[in-house]
């Protein structure tokens, strides 16, 4: 019966029956709307008209502080607030003034209460807007963006009724242009936008996000400066939807601003128990980039609260990767820096009745509906003594934990704040045998460092309430947690546990195997850091989780290497070619441009002698139709030499395999231009080249539906091909690890750290854009 009464009440406000039924499903919204409508009816003494009902629904659905409901309903019912613009201003005012009492005079001024906008004022504002755009209006007629006129008129008359402005725009445009013609009714043809001039390597191109085309045309810095318009300003944390205020909030924010000076502060807080991967690159770019884009600072804080999994090598590797991506932390900190303060706060939490010592075992706390703790209501003094006993090592691991009294968004009840561990800590040694958890440490370390924007991936959204709760329970400065979407790649596995399984199975060599998507692996493969940052910019500052195709990352790599990797020539499957009429008694010195498209970037010298080596695939005795390289009766040019060679004799071994070729040469301009030019080497260096393909055969190797046998069963047997006796021109002789080159017609390659004097090792970073098998 109550539901029917509410349904009738809601439809009486002007809601459709379907909308009213949907509203009833939301218990919080329906209760708030019922209270608002009941109060409005009492004030009006009559039924509620549709315009007032619409405002009441907008109020109930958007108001975050129920204490203000009665105050705002009185303004709507008395028609002091009678437009959507006024309602929005009122909601913003109460959100930004959480403390009692509200200054009524200031509120009414901010919300336009009592301001009367006459039809004449609207007419004048619209006429002024039309006059500013008159010439373009007369040309484009009804294809002109009328929203521009409305926007300018509304900007001039903030409290005017939007419907009245639209009506006036329609009337004045009709008077100026007359009725619509057939041409006006035709759809406006789409005009392709001119491509912006590329001034930053991070300028984006079309990408595909979860199967849909997405275009990001802003650099990451531009995007992050844009995010600043959506995020709260430092010190205005309370304006964030969902932020919980207390009587101490405004004083704490005032103290916070005195310490920070209104500076944006972020942090990148990795756990030092593994190597960073491509997903972390987005987190690094977002945290450091947001601070940089808004003239702030970013901390690198190691969340070293689990001594069982932390190793010194991970600390070093993480710092190196942050620096490699081009960022310098304002300060490197550790959660362990604050162990004393965190412990003192835990004692205070117990004293305030907000935490207790529990003896439930770990397995008892697992699952969706674990049993409530029988120790939840134990006396405060008892929990204080027991927590001290935990600190002094009087409990074995798992025998006691400290738990906080709250329920999280995901239904998890009383998360653990401290647990007993007897593993020595890498920094504090044996000083502690109780260690705080992430749920306890994260927000309090943010508070200590006066972080303004705690940027986390989406899975931490379920912990936002505990974040606010804990800071407020202790009456300490409470930052704001903002969530963004994780970045994932197809054909990849990035979890620490699974990478260790790959290493143990011999599928990869280590964390930096170039087939993985850890940052150390990508660096070893030859991916430039600029390309990874550009990729993050193309993905954009997304809230939804994003899974991208690897080839989109590779496209970013090519864009950078095309401009930064000097050219050289290498031959993977050498075929010896002897030039019988070589025009000189000794080798000629050939100048090869480092970047053929920009000769101002210099050149290097390579020898060209009577014996050269070409790719075996660049010669065919019996070519198929369309084959353009060396064959009987089909000469080819040798790149950069100015010479063309023509086949004279094929030398074969006992098995019939071609061992070498004998050719003659002529100047390129001494006859018909050949159909193709091929690369070559002469007096070359022998090197090892490693060619990489995808490690997995399926897009989602961890998905049981796609790979029933598990990710280890999905390994690509052709993911690594080692060419042990490749030949490369001598211009690369002094190359150092991580130096990068484009081997003409083959792809981009990087010097591997396995290289030693006299034996270079190259990793193929990516192929060229063109199909390498193209004739």
TrEMBL record:
SUPFAM superfamilies (alphabetical): Nucleotidylyl transferase, Ribosomal protein L25-like
What's an example of a GO molecular-function annotation for this chain?
ATP binding
Q: EC number(s) for this protein?
A: 6.1.1.18
Any GO BP annotation: glutaminyl-tRNA aminoacylation
Keyword DNA repair belongs to the record:
no
Q: What class of enzyme is it?
A: ligase
Q: What keywords is this UniProt entry annotated with?
A: Acetylation, Aminoacyl-tRNA synthetase, ATP-binding, Cytoplasm, Ligase, Nucleotide-binding, Phosphoprotein, Protein biosynthesis
PROSITE patterns assigned:
AA_TRNA_LIGASE_I
Tell me which residues make up the Glutamyl/glutaminyl-tRNA synthetase class Ib anti-codon binding domain: 565-665
tRNA synthetases class I (E and Q) anti-codon binding domain location: 677-752
Catalyses:
tRNA(Gln) + L-glutamine + ATP = L-glutaminyl-tRNA(Gln) + AMP + diphosphate
Keyword Protein biosynthesis (UniProt)? yes
Where do the segments described as Disordered lie? 185-204
Task: Report the locations given in the UniProt record.
Answer: Cytoplasm, Cytosol
Q: Which residues form the Glutamyl/glutaminyl-tRNA synthetase class Ib catalytic domain?
A: 263-562
Domain Glutaminyl-tRNA synthetase class Ib non-specific RNA-binding as annotated: residue spans: 7-162, 165-254
Organism domain of life: Eukaryota
CC per GO annotation:
aminoacyl-tRNA synthetase multienzyme complex; cytosol
Similarity-based family? Belongs to the class-I aminoacyl-tRNA synthetase family.
Supply the name of the protein. Answer: Glutamine--tRNA ligase
Q: Which organism is it from?
A: Muntiacus muntjak
Write the lineage as a comma-separated list: Eukaryota, Metazoa, Chordata, Craniata, Vertebrata
């Amino acid at each position: 019966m109550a539901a029917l009464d509410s349904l009738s009440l809601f439809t009486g406000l002007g809601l459709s029956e379907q909308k009213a039924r949907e509203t009833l499903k939301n218990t919080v919204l329906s209760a708030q709307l019922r209270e608002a409508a009941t109060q409005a009816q009492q004030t009006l003494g009559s039924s509620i008209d549709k315009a007032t009902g619409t405002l009441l629904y907008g109020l109930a659905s958007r108001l975050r502080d129920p204490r203000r409901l009665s105050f705002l309903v009185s303004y709507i019912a008395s028609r002091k607030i009678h437009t959507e613009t006024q309602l929005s201003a009122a909601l913003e005012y109460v959100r930004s003034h959480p403390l009692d009492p509200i200054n009524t005079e200031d509120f009414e001024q901010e919300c336009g209460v009592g301001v009367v906008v006459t039809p004449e004022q609207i007419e004048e504002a619209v006429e002024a807007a039309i006059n500013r755009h008159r010439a373009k209006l007369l040309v484009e007629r009804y294809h002109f963006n009328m929203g521009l006129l409305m926007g300018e008129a509304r900007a001039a008359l903030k409290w005017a009724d939007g419907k009245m402005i639209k009506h006036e725009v329609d009337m004045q445009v009709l008077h100026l242009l007359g009725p619509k013609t057939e041409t006006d009714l035709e759809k406006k043809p789409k005009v392709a936008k001119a491509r912006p001039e590329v001034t930053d390597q991070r300028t984006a191109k079309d990408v595909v996000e979860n199967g849909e085309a997405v275009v990001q045309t802003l650099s990451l810095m531009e995007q992050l400066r844009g995010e600043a318009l959506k995020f709260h300003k430092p010190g205005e944390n309370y304006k964030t939807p969902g932020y919980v205020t207390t009587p101490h909030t405004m004083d704490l924010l005032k103290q916070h601003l005195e310490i920070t000076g209104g500076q944006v502060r972020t942090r990148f807080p990795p756990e030092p128990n593994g190597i960073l991967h491509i997903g972390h690159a987005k987190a690094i770019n977002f945290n450091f980039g947001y601070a940089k884009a808004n003239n702030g600072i970013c901390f690198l804080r190691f969340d070293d609260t689990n001594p069982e999994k932390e190793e010194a090598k991970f600390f070093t590797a993480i710092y190196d990767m942050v620096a490699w991506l081009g960022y310098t932390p304002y300060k490197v900190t550790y959660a362990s820096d604050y162990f004393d303060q965190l412990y003192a706060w835990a004692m205070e939490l117990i004293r305030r009745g907000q935490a207790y010592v529990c003896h439930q075992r770990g397995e008892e706390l697992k699952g969706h509906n674990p049993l409530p703790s029988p120790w939840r209501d134990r006396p405060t003094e008892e929990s204080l003594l027991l927590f001290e006993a935990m600190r002094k090592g009087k409990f074995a691991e798992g025998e006691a934990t400290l738990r906080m009294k709250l329920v999280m968004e995901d239904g998890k009840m009383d998360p653990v704040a401290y647990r007993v561990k007897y593993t020595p800590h890498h920094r504090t040694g044996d000083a502690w045998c109780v260690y705080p958890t992430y749920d306890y440490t994260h927000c309090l370390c943010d508070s200590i460092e006066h972080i303004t924007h705690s940027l986390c991936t989406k899975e931490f959204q379920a912990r936002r309430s505990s974040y606010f709760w804990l800071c407020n329970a202790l009456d300490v400065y409470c930052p704001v947690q903002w969530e963004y979407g994780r970045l994932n790649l197809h054909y990849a596995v990035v979890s620490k546990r699974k990478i260790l399984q790959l290493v143990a199975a011999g599928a990869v060599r280590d964390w930096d195997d170039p087939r993985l998507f850890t940052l150390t692996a990508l660096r070893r493969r030859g991916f430039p850091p600029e390309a990874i940052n550009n990729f993050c910019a193309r993905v954009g500052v997304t809230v939804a989780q994003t899974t991208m195709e690897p080839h989109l990352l590779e496209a970013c790599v090519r864009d950078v290497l095309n401009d930064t990797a000097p050219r050289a020539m290498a031959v993977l499957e050498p075929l010896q070619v002897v030039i019988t009429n070589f025009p000189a008694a000794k080798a000629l010195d050939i100048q090869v441009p480092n970047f053929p498209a920009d000769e101002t970037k210099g050149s290097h010298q390579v020898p060209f002698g009577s014996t050269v080596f070409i790719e075996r695939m660049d010669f065919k005795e019996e070519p198929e139709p369309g084959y353009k390289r060396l064959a009987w009766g089909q000469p080819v040019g040798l790149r950069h030499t100015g010479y063309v060679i023509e086949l004279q004799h094929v030398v074969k071994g006992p098995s019939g395999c071609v061992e070498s070729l004998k050719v003659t040469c002529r100047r390129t301009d001494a006859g018909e231009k050949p159909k193709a030019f091929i690369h070559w080497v002469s007096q070359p260096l022998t090197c090892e080249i490693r060619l990489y393909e995808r490690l997995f055969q399926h897009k989602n190797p961890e998905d049981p539906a796609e790979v029933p046998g598990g990710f280890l069963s999905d390994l690509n047997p052709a993911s690594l091909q080692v060419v042990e006796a490749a030949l490369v021109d001598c211009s690369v002789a002094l190359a150092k690890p991580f130096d990068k080159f484009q081997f003409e017609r083959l792809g981009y390659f990087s010097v591997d750290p396995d290289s030693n004097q006299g034996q270079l090792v190259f990793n193929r970073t990516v192929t060229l854009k063109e199909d390498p098998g193209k004739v």
